[in-house]
Amino acid sequence: MHVFDKNIDICHLLSEAVSEGIIVVNKDQLIVSINKKAAHLFKYTHRELLGKPLSELIPEKYKVAHEGHFIKYFSNVKKAKMAGGRCVQGLRKTGEEFPLNVKFNPFSIYQNTYILVLVNDLSERMEIEKNLDIKSEALDATQNGIVISDALEEDYPIIYVNKAFSRLTGYSKSEALNRNCRFLQNDDNDQRGIKIMHNAIRSGKKCQVQVRNYKKDGTLFWNEISINPVRNHEGKITHFVGIQNDISKRVKAEEEIRHFLKIFDDSLNEIYVFDAKTLRFSHVNYGAKKNTGYTLRELRKISFKEIISGITEDRLQEILDPIYRNNQKKITFETLFKRKDGTTYPVEVHLQSSGLGGSVLIVAIALDISERKNYTQKLEKTVAQRTQELKEALLKEKELNELKTKFLSMVSHEFKTPLSAILTSATLVGKYCDSDQQGKRKKHLDSISKGVHHLTGILNDFLSIERLEQGKEIYRLADFSLSKIVNQVVYNANMLLKTGQKINYPMNIEDEIVYQDEKIIALVLTNLLHNAIKYSPEDTEIDIEINFDEDMLSLSVIDRGIGIPKKDQKHIFERYFRADNVLITQGTGIGLNIVKFHVENLGGNINFKSIENKGSTFTVTLPIKNDIE
Ligand code: ADP
Predict the structure, then answer these.
(1) Assigned domain for 200 exists
(2) Beta bridge partners of 107
(3) CA angle, 258 as apex, 257 and 259 as ends, to 5°?
(4) Which SS3 state, helix, strand or coil, does residue 467 take?
(5) pLDDT of 256-296, one tens digit each?
(6) 535 lines ligand 1 (CB under 6 A)
(7) Which pTM was predicted?
(8) 356 Cα distance to chain centroid
(9) Is ligand 1 within 6 A of the CB of residue 597?
(10) Using a 6 Å cutoff on CB, does residue 461 contact ligand 1?
(11) Domain encompassing residue 487
């Protein structure tokens, strides 16, 4: 006893700090120390028990057995370590018996051996377990898996599972008991639900979580677990009751719904859900928000009417009417939707009614048909363009036919006159047989040769047209003396001059060298000069003027002839065109057309001034040094 007195303060402090009851007995089983907790457990005061035999705390019927145990334990005390965890009955001062758990721990101080007895009241737990037994029948009948864990034992072993638990998990009662619940997680423990559950258990709170668990055969199932801590009258948690519910089907259904919602939301088509009566939006998807520029919150403040721009309110009512009267489930129409920024776009809208808990909703799926509209517009434009092209082609074809007719009449006319002249001359040549008729023969032979030349000239014009059209014309550029060409052309033209006609041409161009196609320049000048002669009366003068302006050369042929009627002037370069005032004069209407073609190909241009019955001036402008190569 004195040992304890010496150390009373430390001992007291320690023993009062622990939660268990502590009784220290000596070898005579006399209580040498007891903490308040233990004294309280047995309903004694602390002092009342000091020095009392331990047997005072043991019911009569167990005393003998206890004595035997104690003596045996004490004789072996040197070998004995902490022993116990035994359930025994205790005796309170009031005479009441109660279950308790005892653990023995021998120790020696100053050659004296003592036994420290740790006592824990089991009455409450026993009561719960008794209750559990009673309730387990009922619990077994429930559909939910029920697990009860001992919160007072290390790692909270399972002390009860019901039948539904075994059905749910595939683990039998014996396979589940005495294990921590976590075996249901396999290694899949990095889950939000599990963390929540741990935190709740740690802080002694209720929780409900959904976690992935695994059946005995490895199948995954979604377990909705409610954890409820059970407290004793002191507020200490003694058990955790877990209620389990296999919600795999529900989770799957929810996943499917979430998937459908995602499809709904992700769809690039615009989907609007609105109330059939008020037309106010209740839901819209991403496509709708994106295309209209509104947020869902903004759309919820407005109605379907307000995003429609293409039709009147009355017309909208008319469209919706069959849905209201329930005789048409689905309606399709085209309109314009108005964006938040006021711009519009064409849409094809499919409306469908859908009942939801008593209220009627309308689902509108809108397809942006801008592309389609653009395509139609483009198509219409293309059709119009093609029609125009066809019209033009038809006109050209008509013009071509007219040209052909003109050509044929021109050819027959142009060939007929020289041919009949040739025929007449040939017939007459045959008649002039006498030697003194040589002069007459020569005159007719000349006329034949002139006629043939004329026809050859016409044919050459045709051939050059053919060449030009086929792009076969090759220009041969070279330096040549302009005066040489002018002299040559004038010389040849002299033969055609009518009585009294005279050609004036410049004499001061001897040194002028041009880099052009010599033959073509000669052809151009010849054509213009021949026309001037042809379309001017006798006794008139024809001037050729040549001017140089920097790098350009201009070549004019001026006559005082019949001129070109004003109304015909715009057609003068058209092929086969001949003015009204020249129809009795021979010609094909090809010359000027060819001249213009060549002049432009050589980098120049041609124009004219003409007054009827006064005369014409044709001017050709060409580069002195051609660089078309
Ligand atoms: P052609 O002289 O063979 O008819 P052109 O093509 O050379 O063909 O001329 C086309 C038309 O232009 C002529 O038919 C004529 O009506 C008019 N023309 C050309 N040059 C003159 C001119 N110097 N004076 C009056 N009319 C002219």
Answers:
(1) yes
(2) 114
(3) 90
(4) helix
(5) 888 888 888 887 789 999 988 899 998 899 889 998 999 98
(6) yes
(7) 0.43
(8) 33
(9) no
(10) no
(11) 475-623
